[in-house]
Hints:
The structure holds 2 protein chains of 2 kinds. Chain A is of the alpha+beta class. The model of chain A has no long low-confidence stretch (mean pLDDT 96). Chain A is 23% helix and 32% strand. Chain A has a 5-stranded antiparallel beta sheet with strand order 1-3-4-5-2, with helices on one face. Chain A is built from 4 helices and 5 strands. In chain A, strand 4 and strand 5 form a beta hairpin. Chain A has one domain (15-149): Thiol Ester Dehydrase, Chain A, CATH 3.10.129. Chain B has 2 domains: 4-18 and 72-156, Roll (Thiol Ester Dehydrase, Chain A); 19-58, no CATH class. Chain B has 4 helices and 5 strands. Chain B has helices at 20-31, 46-51, 65-71, 76-81, and strands spanning 14-17, 89-98, 107-121, 129-140, 146-156. Chain B has a 5-stranded antiparallel beta sheet with strand order 1-3-4-5-2. The N and C termini of chain B lie close together (10 Å). The mean pLDDT of chain B is 93. Chains A and B meet through helix 1, helix 3 and strand 2 of A and helix 1, helix 3 and strand 2 of B. Strand 2 (81-88) of chain A pairs antiparallel with strand 2 (89-98) of chain B.
Amino acid sequence: MTKAITYNNINVGDAMPAFTSDPVTRTHMVRYAGASGDFNPLHHDETFVKIFGMPLVISHGMLIMGITGRAITEWIDDKYIRKFGVRFSGMTEPVDLHDFENTKQRATITVTGKVVEKFEEAGEKRIRCEIQAADGLGAVKITGTFVAALP
Amino acid sequence: MADKTKIGTEFPPYTFEVEKGKIAEFAMAISQKESKDQVKPIYWNAAAAKAAGYGDIVPSPTFQTCFALWGGGGLMPMLQSLGINLVRLLHGEEEYEYLNPIHPGDIMTGQSKVVSMYDKEKKDKPGKLMEFTVLETEIKNQRGELVIRARTTLVER
């Protein structure tokens, strides 16, 4: 166990521990489709996306937000999260298993963040963090913020 | 093109019963894991959740996305009724405010309304517009407590 995070021992400018996902596969996307109920064929059917001239299926943005949420809650307990918002800025193509080494970076999501504000609200001591999710090539997928109430 | 006379439209409420298996399944999906014992125990083990200071098992932070998709007949009929062009549609932003916990057995009711619709000029193509539609959804539990307030920004590029 790492030392518990408290309002007093965290400071503006502190970085959230960087989190790196597994390379997103089509199987991960199918699992997410079933879990969430989002069966838009854009996310699993390559014969569908070809109609629009797209070469590959793309991940659900909400899967990338889910991975970002996981990164946050690996650091700060779920029960402390008060707000979580993101802007989607890029699409994510899954890794091609027959060409894994050349395609894994575009499908690997690294989430980083830092504390930008400490404040009191609703009788709680809260922090606001800015977060970003980007792939292994540096392309940004998500920018956002979350607010947590800390003990 | 989104029909801007639809600002203020309230969609019919939908309900979704929170099941423990769905919470574990969703946590596995966002964690890229194949079995529940590879994800945090608060997502599937009531005793572990209670020991960690929760009332019961809780879902991961974006779980509520499945309330509308599984409980509300999907987003598509909603978007079509607004005249949104699905081929041009992008999910621009998603934001949650967490006001009360969610546990297995809770019956969630969500209701969405269109709070704004506006255009913005494309940076790279002057004169061409991107159209924005913002939905706000209030999700309440069976006790009528507001649990989550969600804000979704859709973009037609």
